Amino acid sequence: MRWCLLVFGCFIGLVYGQKFKLGGNWTGILTDSAQGFTKAFPVILQLKGVNGHATGIFRLETMDGFSQYEVTGDYSSKKRFVLTSGLKPSLQIKNIALNPFDFTFNFQDSNEYVTGVFHSMGCPFHQLNLYLERDDMAYTLEKNLLFSTTNVLAMAHRIQLGVPAKSKRLKELANFKFQPVYFAVDSYEIDSSYFSYLARLTRLLNSNSDLRLKIIGHTDADGSDEYNLELSKNRSNALYKRLQSLGISPDRMLFEFVGESQPVQSNKNERGKQRNRRVEFSFI
Question: How many Cβ atoms are within 10 Å of 192's Cβ, its own excluded?
């Protein structure tokens, strides 16, 4: 039994990423985030670490071409150490004004970005801020550009919004649980106790641009069918407008209303009625 528990524990640890992995692809941007992201350039770091020594390739792209350097660094912690480039690029297309450089590979547990300040004296990329996130795509560092302006702008926008790295977003999505929003009798006013939950839901939607949200309004059985249908519509619309005010685009939401037709508990007692006066959510 102990052996089974040990194997199961190791499996869970691997599935949920409790052990930090240094090697692989890290993609992101170099940007002047302190000045409002007026500059942003795509970068990729292919990295591996063995016995306290990290080696890899760092590549910076512009609209015209790219420059890539071999990088190395010793570490005692896989989550924070300095990487330093070679003196000359290992591959370059066009004369990208990038000189030898160094930066700190600093993994942030809170958002799972690697951050650092890029030091490359005498070039326009000196002291730009670096943001990297783990990327499981396969990249071949040949002569073609790998990233588009759309990629760069999308990542810059996510960072501005405080959206975490992709690995963190996937964990948050897997752990997120919907909860209904309940209403008082004959009311479609959202109680302020739900505001923090709606903020978390907003962040999740902002973090996963491919998700759309369905909002479904319900009532208890008191009153006429027509009245309850209109009341359930008002409740759905109240949540729709609230999420829109928090920054969710209308085209990412759909709201429906079904009146009293789909109770979750009996309408013969007050507790059941209270549970039926609700708005529910689902992803579509």
Answer: 7
CB count in 10 Å sphere of residue 236: 24
Which candidate, 61, 59, 155, 57, places its Cα nearest to that of 113?
Answer: 155
Is this model's pTM higher than 0.85 or not?
Answer: no
pLDDT of 18 above 60: no
Displacement of CA 116 from its chain's centroid (Å): 19
CA 267 to chain CA mean position, Å: 41
Task: Spell out the residues 6+ positions from residue 250 whose beta carbon is closer than 8 angstroms to its own.
Answer: 240, 244
pLDDT tens track for 59-103:
999 988 999 999 999 999 999 999 999 999 999 988 788 999 999
Tell me the domains of the chain and their CATH numbers: 22-161 (2.40.128.120), 176-283 (3.30.1330.60)
Q: Which of 167-171, 206-210, 214-218 has the lowest mean pLDDT?
A: 206-210
b vs e for 109-146, b when ≥16 Cβ sit within 10 Å of the residue's Cβ? eebbbbbbebbbeebebeebbbbbbbbeeeeeeeeeeb
Q: Please enumerate in sequence order all residues whose Cβ is within 8 A of that of 106, keeping only pairs 6 or more positions apart, or say none.
A: 79, 80, 114, 115, 116
* Measured distance CA(80)–CA(246) in Å, rounded: 35
Q: Name 30's Cβ contacts closer than 8 Å, sequence gap at least 6.
A: 39, 40, 41, 43, 60, 118, 125, 128, 129, 130
Q: Using alpha carbons only, how large is the chain's radius of gyration in Å?
A: 25
Phi, psi of 137 (to 5 degrees): -70, 155
Reported as type and span, the H/E element at residue 267 is none
